[in-house]
Amino acid sequence: MKPYESRWMDDDLRVLRETVSRFVETEMLPHEPRWRRQKHVDPATWRQVGEAGFLLLDVPAEYGGGGGDFRHEAVLYEELNRRGISGFGQGVHSIAAHYVLNYGSEAQKQRWLPRMARGELIGAIAMTEPGAGSDLKGIRTRAVRDGDSYLINGSKIFITNGSIATILMLVVRTNPGDRSRGLSILMVETEGLKGYRVGRVLDKMGLTAQDTSELFFEDARVRADCLLGGEEGKGMHMLMGDLPYERITIALGGVAAMEGVLEETARYVKERQVFGQSVASYQNTKFKLAEVATYTRVARVFVDRCIEQLVAGTLDSETAAMAKWWITDTQQKAIDECLQLFGGYGYMNEYLVCRLFADARVQRIYGGTNEIMKELISRSI
Ligand SMILES: Cc1cc2nc3c(=O)[nH]c(=O)nc-3n(C[C@H](O)[C@H](O)[C@H](O)COP(=O)(O)OP(=O)(O)OC[C@H]3O[C@@H](n4cnc5c(N)ncnc54)[C@H](O)[C@@H]3O)c2cc1C
């Protein structure tokens, strides 16, 4: 099969891919089993990735970023996801930074982005609460203005990077009387913050190297100038504007995982002998691999188009929602077919296919469930 290369690749991006791939292989992959055991990535790794210049690749250089666009970010996502390095929550880190970039004042950008680009600050997005997941308008974590500060009370759950995060993109309720216009976003630095506490690092089906956590706020006081968007009540509007970016990162992660699993499976079935012949020699295996290769190619072409539109600023939220639900559903199906070809070994955590299978399940849940994606799409039909 002729190798496929995304239309958006160019020589600079090819060089970046080579450098990133080498870095991931030597500096990250060897630590991955330990990250899974300890249930978090070392904060030192964040600084290392920052020093290598791979954080915030699509943030302008004047704010410490790489000065590129989403294609540069895409290279990093792909190199991580195809190898199943799912504990390093660079996606949410970048998403949090983009809220600052898109809605922050000049002073706020200067205050947070360079430190996020260096990996000195680790970002998280803290929206979900025990009583508010899909229904974000149900958020109850309260921020009350008190002079030059906000007093925060409430809790968040399922927060990616939660235990090691040092800057939160925190969605709070500033007006209890208005469900949609009563939400605001605060950028909260957590180091030494009194009244802030990380709860459990949650025990999950997959993404075991990822410190998905509970967060608690009890009279936590932050400076009022951490409010994004210039005024209270703009939270929902900002979220609606930035969710397509998040959904494309999820869809792209799904495509990269499919590409990784296909490569791994093709290698395995050629080596594994059953009844005196390779697993690859059976027609069932050939047909399954042909199906997975087709799913992967269709998903890749779709996500590449979305990436081009994202870079051009023309990606609409319905198309991003289509990519998110269809690719993540397909990812699950494709990895499941591959896992079957590994027999019992596919059920063992030491095999990449097993970890990718477990990691894939949540792709259909977070970033807005796939049902919510269909709800969004249906409104435009
Ligand atoms: C591993 C992991 C990491 C996560 N990381 C983050 C993070 O970093 N930051 C963050 O803020 N959140 C994060 N989340 C939370 C995630 O975004 C939510 O779990 C998700 O949005 C669903 O919310 P919920 O769990 O409350 O489910 P619910 O909203 O209770 O949904 C339950 C079911 O009802 C369905 N449903 C809900 N509304 C509708 C509707 N209108 N029509 C049809 N069906 C509907 C859903 O699709 C789902 O099947 C993470 C979750 C996980 C598991």
The total beta strand count reads 9
Could you spell the SSE succession in H and E letters? HHHHHHEEEEEEEHEEHHHH
Beta content comes to 5-15%
Bound molecules: flavin-adenine dinucleotide
The residue-averaged pLDDT reads 97
Largest sheet: 4 strands, antiparallel
Describe it for me?
The chain is of the alpha+beta class. It is built from eleven helices and nine strands. The strands form three sheets. A four-stranded antiparallel sheet has the order 2-3-7-6, with no helix packed on it. The chain has a three-stranded mixed sheet with strand order 1-4-5, with helices on one face. The radius of gyration is 21 Å and the shape is globular. It starts with 10 loop residues before the first helix and ends with a helix. The model has no long low-confidence stretch (mean pLDDT 97). The site of flavin-adenine dinucleotide has 22 residues, from strand 1, strand 3 and helix 11.
List the helices and strands and how they pair.
Elements (H helix, E strand, L loop, with lengths): L10 H18 L3 H7 L4 H9 L18 H12 L8 H14 L2 H12 L5 E4 L15 E5 L2 E11 L7 E7 L9 E7 L6 E6 L11 E11 L11 H37 L1 E2 L2 E2 L4 H30 L4 H25 L10 H9 L9 H10 L2
Parallel strand pairs: 1-4
Antiparallel strand pairs: 2-3, 3-7, 4-5, 6-7, 8-9
Helix pairs in contact: 1-4, 4-7, 5-6, 5-7, 7-8, 7-9, 7-10, 8-9, 9-10, 9-11
The structure holds flavin-adenine dinucleotide.
Flavin-adenine dinucleotide (FAD) binds next to strand 1, strand 3 and helix 11.
